[in-house]
Prior knowledge:
By secondary structure, chain A is α+β, with helices and mostly antiparallel strands. Chain A has helices at 3-9, 17-28, 33-42, 47-56, 76-80, 83-94, 139-144, and strands at residues 68-73, 107-112, 124-126, 129-131.
Amino acid sequence: MDYKDIIAKYADMPGGIIESFHAIQKELSYLPEEAIVEAAKVFNIPAAEAYGVATFYSMFSTNSRGKNVIRICESAPCHVAGAAEVVAALERELGIKMGESTPDGLFALEFTECVGQCQATPVITINGKPYLDVSPAKIPGILAEYK
Amino acid sequence: MAEEMRIVLRNYGKIDPLKIEDYIAQGGYKPLEKARSMDKEALIDEVKKSNLRGRGGAGFNCGQKWLFAYKADSDVKYVICNADEGEPGTYKDRMIMENDPHTVLEGMAICGYAIGATKGYIYLRGEYPQLVDILNTAIAQAKEKGVLGEFDIEVRSGAGAYVCGEETALIESIEGKRGEPRYKPPYPPVEGLWNKPTIVNNVETFANIPVILEKGGDWYASIGVPSYPGTKVFTLTGDINNKTFFEVPTNTTVRELIYKFGGGIPGGKKFKAVQIGGTSGAFLSEEQLDTPVAFDNMAAVGATLGSGAVFVLDESRDVVDVTTRIAKFFEHESCGKCAPCREGTARMHELMEKLNAGKGSAADIALLERLGRVMSYSCLCGLGQAAPTPVLTTIERFQADYNAKLM
Ligand SMILES: Cc1cc2nc3c(=O)[nH]c(=O)nc-3n(C[C@H](O)[C@H](O)[C@H](O)COP(=O)(O)O)c2cc1C
Ligand code: FES
């Protein structure tokens, strides 16, 4: 769906700009500049303010990034459970560093704080889906689901 | 010795959360019916009598808060359920909503009737997309059955900002803005969402309400520690055998949580430290373990109950390293609105990195203590005020770890 159609769906929702950004990211994985400008128009706020919203929240990206967003929890419980090893394994397996996307546009690697699945640390999420008790050995199998 | 006691998780494993019939079969939505037959002030009085205090961290008396919103003169008022649950190591609100969404809806509807609001919002953290469907299904079922009456509930998603758990930042976020805390007063019960009187309560707080209506305020007030009665849900993480959640009366001690419920430390290792209440909480050492997990008892040992996270570290852990990680969290999550927090969290992280790398001196520790003290009273909101707590409490209680890393 075109970003204009997506934003239009939320036009009547008071304060709905954040919901519209979520919906755009579901389709495009990030918020293109034109989409932010369009949202500003629809929600009747200055473009700078809409951009301010887009850049405030860590789940929103104003840069294009891989389709499948992998987030690694680095909060203290995951930290002591070995999150650093999971980071190293993901970087090795994908050939990119944290904060980067794979050249084929398939994956983006990001840090996150606690995602609320702390019963089974370390935790990663892919497009919001949690993977629990992750170890370096489990990484290839998890990534294969998205290839 | 304390046993588990399930109030907010009373239906856990007993009902299909996606079937309203199951909830109703357990007596669900009867308390709402009862509430609606009561005089509003008498209803608020009953909640007050229970002495239920907010489970989102600040521990404010729930009925008292409702009374402020009830008394506020306005045609439009709102009820907000704070499901932002951003405190690292916490997932209790998720357990409640995943397993018994209707108890939260019912608690909100009772509040709506009490204060005179017909619209409610659940502000759900963006990290819980699976819960959007569960909650919307529950809302649709409740509407179809007509149990909510006039009261309407809408789910709004956060987008990964810890500060949005702070009630005025949360309100800004629902309004579609950057989640920056407002200056207080006015407080939300007087001027909240779209400047209308608004009640913001935590998921666990709302989940207690139907049971209080069913069994009475006196019954609730008699459970656990009188100054903070009832139960509390705790989530155990770190070096602990049972990495899971427990709902216990508030007279349970930290030691019981770790050794009785948590099953102790894995691998026969010794206990070193526990952080209570999430990443903004205090670290306790062995000497403080017999403290009951109630608000004022915790405050007496310089701790807060916070979200109910219990993060345990064994003897092999480096407290300075863990605290450095925590300091990074606060630098990242500071919204930047006020200078003491924006600058303070950055400097605090910088100093912790220096100490953790073995490049720090005693003067750096003294500087951290001073910075922490200043932040605790000069920051605009609870984020910056609490950010120094883990640093200050570890410096006080785990000095040996710091000394071992001095240049
Ligand atoms: C930085 C910060 C984060 C917070 N995060 C949460 C949260 O995730 N959930 C919550 O219920 N309360 C959170 N609070 C507390 C809320 O501001 C507010 O006190 C609470 O939602 C009131 O509900 P209660 O009275 O039922 O506890 C946070 C406060 C601060 C300062
Ligand atoms: S600490 Fe990593 S999921 Fe909670």
